[in-house]
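Fold this sequence, please.
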Amino acid sequence: MKKWSFSTSAIHAGETGEKIEGAVTLPIFQSSTYLYEGQSSYGELKYLRLNNTPNHISLCRKIAALEEGEAAIVTASGMAAVSDSLMAVLQQGDHMLAQNCIYGGSRDLLSREFPRHGIEVDFVESLARKDLEAGMQANTRALLVESITNPLMQIDDLVQAAEFAREKGIVCLIDNTFPSPFNFQPLKIGYDMVIHSCSKYLNGHTDLVAGAVIGSREMIEKVNHRNIHFGATLDPHTCFLLNRGIKTLPLRMRQHNSNAAALAEFFARHPKIARVHYPGLPGSGVNARTRKLFNGFGGMLSIELKGGKKENEGLIRGLQIPANAPSLGGVESLITIPARTSHAGLSPEERKSTGISDNLVRISVGIEGVEDLLEDFEQALQQIG
């Protein structure tokens, strides 16, 4: 079969060839239980918790196609995807490495929950070989990174990290939520598993919570085994909504990329902005080798205003379009202060060690008219200080 383009795969990959009762769209199979038809193993039984009902199968095939992986599994949340995938490759007595600046929920899981289960975690300052070598131990089994870090929007040397993991024989996992597979496909450069919070760009409409893990069939079978035991299965209706959301991913991501780039350039020139964190800007520190891997840099950026708490609150209060809310990746623009929301679970010392200041403002740039967004931020900035 001819390999489809990304846009065609987003619409048609994973869809059943049979049009059930003539329906062009795959229906919602709102059933937990299916007939026994002589299956020889427990995993082959059709049952909702086993992640193998028609809506799951179609959705997983589509997501695997977009990341160019052999298989995928969907989970009840992005954090379920993170925990399932790591627990599939780690056990008591193991050690793992992770990037220092990652999503607060992931860091909380690694630093607070994993030690209780006998899994040791060290956070590395960068993905430079010297830092990875310094963190390695005889029992190191995995490395977790983010393709674009949350909330500082850094892109480290992702190629180096994958090469290092292969050389050392450790499993390399990457959270690819921020760029989405439209902008970056990590499996192509040697990552073993790709993780998504599908609540964000893959769905794109701020109306569901889901996660996904993509990789080889062998790896995904291990992850699914953990997911079955932990019970973090996605319900059929949410599968249906996520499948529908993915169909417009290419269209949305082009606009996210364009709008965020325009806003980043606007902030970089603005006299009231002290610093802009966006990997697409010149001088962002992204090396040429890494830059070539990305089709675009997504819709996420963060800024630091000249001033502090008063100025941040004034900006957020003065905006008319972006909502003050902690999530990201939807069609609408959102703005938040990570120290109070996405990274509130970290101690002040932990936030400081990762470079997250209390006045850092994170913006999820939506797909509204860019001229309206620029005008709105300009008028809000004029009101402060």
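The mean pLDDT is 95. The chain has 14 helices and twelve strands.
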